[in-house]
Each structure stands twice: as structure tokens, then as C-alpha cells.
Fold this sequence. Notes:
- The protein is α+β, with helices and mostly antiparallel strands and 152 residues long.
- The chain contains six helices and four strands; from the N terminus they run ααααββααββ.
- It has one domain (33-149).
- It has helices spanning 2-10, 15-28, 35-43, 49-56, 81-84, 89-106; strands at residues 61-65, 70-78, 125-133, 139-146.
- Strands 1-2-3-4 form a four-stranded antiparallel beta sheet, with helices on one face.
- A hairpin with a 4-residue loop joins strand 1 and strand 2.
- It is flat and about 55 Å long.
Amino acid sequence: MNTFFRNARSRPLxxxxxxxxxxxxxxSLPACSSSRESYLNGALKNATQEEVVEQLGEPWKKKSSxxxxxxxxxxxxxLTQDELDPMGVDKxxxxxxxxxxxxGAMMGLGGNSDNPLNPDTRPLCFHYVLTFDEAxxxxxxxGREACADTDL
Length: 152
């Protein structure tokens, strides 16, 4: 029996199993980003301002910088918990948090839903900041920031 485990550890994974694992990881990566982010990644260095408006609508704010010859557009979104956690990892954390809140309430220790650690009360507001070349009107870069972190 000991030789079985020793031999099993020294054998490499079969090629089919390794390729299956690599394929699974590659196919599951797009599931980690929202459709907006997938669009923006594909539109980078390619899409014009008009094409972005067709896809995302009018921006929340627009700024132009004549010195840098660029235009900055800001889209404001309140992202859902499912968009922020597409794999559902945070749901376990929320369940544990709610259970501890309930136990605390039963013991007379509070159970206050206004607790700042409560994941359900955290703001889910994000800005997508898009930068376009002023001359070509082509999307040059984009980023997602918390609304409080965006320098307007």
C-alpha cells in the first residue's frame, strides 16, 4: 500500500487532464468581469466616442483637457452585489455575518443592522473613467473606481 501512494505521487498528471484544467480556467475568466468591463476591454484603442455612447449611453460627466489633448468621460453606476461577486464568494461571508448579528441580538449585545461592517450597507457606487484622444476620438484607457475615489 505504501508503494501505491509513493508511485501515485511521482506520476505526472495526464496531458488530457492538464489541458482540461487549463481550458476550464481560460473559459471561466470572462465570467469574473461584468459585461460593461468586457465591452470596454474589447473597445480599448478601437472604439470611437460615438460607439461607446451607442453601447453605454451618455456619460454622467465629461471633461476636456486642452493641454493633454484628451477627453475624460465618467459613467456612474450602482453595481449590484452579483456584479461585484459573480462567483458568489462573498455570500458565505454575509451569511456568517448575519448569523453573528442574530446571535448577538439574542444575547442582548446589539445586532444593529447599521453596523459599518455589515456588507449589505456598504455603498456599491462605482465610476468608470474613460479617456479618449481628443483628435481621433478613440478610447485610450479606462478604469473602475469607487465614487468617493474619483477626482472630478
